[in-house]
Amino acid sequence: MLVRDSTDVVVKPPLSQAVGYIVVVVIGLVIAFTMIFVTRLLKRTVGEDNEKTEMFMTANRSVNTGLTASAVVSSWLWSTAMLGSSLVGYVNGVSGPFWFAAGCSPMIVFFAVLGISCKRKIPEAHTLLEIVRIRYGTTAHVVYMFLCLVNNLFAVANMLLGASAAITALTGMHIIAATFLLPVGVALYTFVGGIKATFLTDYMHTFTILIILCYFSVKVWTLEEIGSIGHLYDLVKEASVRHPVNGNEHGSYLTMTSKGGILFGILHLCANFGLVIMDTSFFIKAFSASPRAVVPGYVVGGIAYFAIPWCLGTLASSVVLGLETNPIFPTYPRRMTSTEISNGLVLPYAAITIAGKGGAAGILIITFMAVTSTLSAQVIAVSSIISFDIYRTYIRPLATDADVIRWSHYGVIFFALFASGFSTMLHYVGVDLGWTLYMLGVLTCPGIFPTAFTILWRRQSRIAAIVSPLLGMATGIAVWLGSAHALYGAITIATSGAVLPCVYGTVASALSPLPYSIIITLFKPENFDWADFRNEKLAFEVERSSSIAVVDERLEVELEGDVHDQKQLKRWGKIAAIWAGATFLGHWVLWPLPMYASKYIFSQAFYSAWLIIAIIWLWGTLFMVGFYPIIGGRVQLLAVWRALWVGKEKGGGTPSSASTVGREEVHVQGGKA
C-alpha cells in the first residue's frame, strides 16, 4: 500500500446525496424516537425508570443472557470490522479475514473472566475506574481515566473515519457532514434511554445487519460472472497470477502462509485486547448483565462474532479480487488505488458489483447501523466517566441521583460533539481508516496487564499500577515511530501507518508493561484484601415500587442466591477461564498455525469447504443474535404485553397491573419465587 498508485480517481456514487441524508438523519431520528418510545413504555409497564441512575447506567444489573450476547456481538460489530476485514482480505488473501476474526473472539471470551471476577469482588461498581480508584487512589484514577478516554476517543475516530468515507463513496454526501450527523441520533436515544436503550438498539441494529449480510452470502451466487464457489476459486487463483502477493506462499491469495496476514494477526490480537480491557463500555455491559448472564453471554457472543469478519471479509475480498478486471466492477478498467483501499472501499465496491444500487443501499444501511450502534456504547461509556469518575468523585461527592443523571446527559452531548470534531481533524491531516486500523493498538494496549492485575492479582503495587502503563505507552510510541524512521527514512502518515512499524509498536506497547509491573511490584508488593472493595457504597438505592415487574422479581431471587454465593461465582470464573483458554488455543494455535507451517495453498475443494463453513457459521450467528434474546427475554416481553392488554381493558391501566402480571409469571417459571 506504500508503493501503489494513489491517484485520486473518483468513482461516481451509485446513490444520490438525498439517500445519504435520509439514512443518516431521518432514519437515525426515527430509530432514536422509537427507542425513546420503548423506554417510556418499559417505564410505564414494568417500572424501568431511566431517571434513576442505576437503571440509566446499569439497567439495574438485570440484563439476560440473550441480550448480553447480542450486545457483545454488537459491541464488536464496528463498521471497521466489516470494512477492515474486507480490506485485509484484499491485501493479504484468505488469511486476512481469518486473522481479523481471530484477533477479536479470544479476548471477547477472555473478558468473561474479568466480568465475573468484578461481579464477585465489587458487584456495585458502575465503571472500571471506580475499581482503580478504590484500590490505588486518586493518582492512579486519573492515569487510568486518561488511558480509557484515549481508548474511547480513537475507537470512535476509527469508526467515524471508515463509516464516513464509505457513506461518501456510496452517496456523494460530504464526508464532514457524515462525520457530524452520524452521532446525532445516537446522542438523542442514549441521552434519554441510557444503557438499556443501548442494549435494545444494539439488538435491533445487529439483527438488521446480519439479515443483510446473510442476503449477500446468498445473492453473490446468483451473479452470472461468479455462479459457483468453484468459479470464484478460479477467479481468485487467476488474480494471484496477475498480482502475486509479496510474502505469501507462491504469491497466492489462497494460502494461510502469509507474512502480511500473520503480522496483521499479531497486531490485531494485541490491539483488540487493549480495546476490550480499556474500553469502559465493556465493563458497563458486564455490570449490567445479571450474574448468571455474564459468562454465557460473553462466551456465546464471542464465538458467534467470529463468523462475521471471517465470512464477510473472505467473500467480499474474493469477489473484488476475482472481478476487478471485469467491466461490471466499479473501477474498471483500473485496479483500486491505495486511497480507496485504505478508506475501506473494498466492501462497498463488492456490494455494488454483486447487487448494483441495491447492494450500495445495503452497505449504506449496515455501515450506518454498525457505526451508530457501537457509537452508542462508546458514548455511554464516556458519559459514565464524566458523571461518576469526574463529577461524583471530585466535583460533588454527595451528588444526588438527579445530579448524576444530568451530568450523564452532559457527557453524552459533549463526547458526541468532541469525537466528531476530533475525527474531522484527523481527516484533514490525511489520516484514514487504514492508518487508525493499524496504529490503534499503540495507544490502546499499555493498560492491558496493569488493568487485568488490578482485578485478578492482589500483589500488584500502587506504584506499579501507575507507572507501568505510562512507561508502556512511551515504549510503544518510541518503538512505533523509531521503526517507521528506521525502515522508511522518515516519519509520515504513510510510513507510520505501515504494517511493520505498527506491529512493533503495538507489541511493545502491549507487552512491556508486564515486566514493568512485575519488577516494580517486587520492590514493595501489596497484599490487597478483596473485601475492601465492598467497604465503599457505590450503588444508588434502587426504588422498587409496586410497578416493578417480573424481571426485577427474578433479580431479587438471584440476589438472594447466586450473587452472595461465592462458590457459585467462583465456579463461573473457572468456566470462563476454561472457555477463554480453549478459544485462544483453537483460534490461534490448533486451527491456523499448522496451515501456516505446512505452506498449504487451498485446493478448490478446501476453499469451497472453507467458505461454506463460514457462511453456515454466519447464519448461525444470525439466529443467535436474532432469536436468542427473544427467547431469553420472553418473560419480560409477556409481562409488557399483558400489562398493556390489562391496561387497555381498564381504560389506561395502572402500574399495579404490570406488577400483578409479573408476580404471576414468576410463579409460572419453575417455582423459583
UniProtKB/TrEMBL annotation:
Annotated keywords: Membrane, Transmembrane, Transmembrane helix, Transport
Localization annotation: Membrane
GO terms for MF: spermidine transmembrane transporter activity; urea transmembrane transporter activity
Keyword Manganese listed: no
Chain intervals for the UniProt region annotation (Disordered): 650-673
Transmembrane segments: 20-42, 62-78, 98-118, 139-161, 167-192, 262-284, 296-323, 363-386, 407-429, 435-456, 463-481, 487-507, 575-593, 605-628
Any Pfam family: SSF
Topology versus the membrane: Multi-pass membrane protein
InterPro entries per record: DUR, Na/Glc_symporter_sf, Na/solute_symporter
Top-rank taxon: Eukaryota
Cellular component, GO, one term: plasma membrane
Similarity-based family: Belongs to the sodium:solute symporter (SSF) (TC 2.A.21) family.
Stated name of the protein: Urea active transporter
Organism: Lepidopterella palustris CBS 459.81
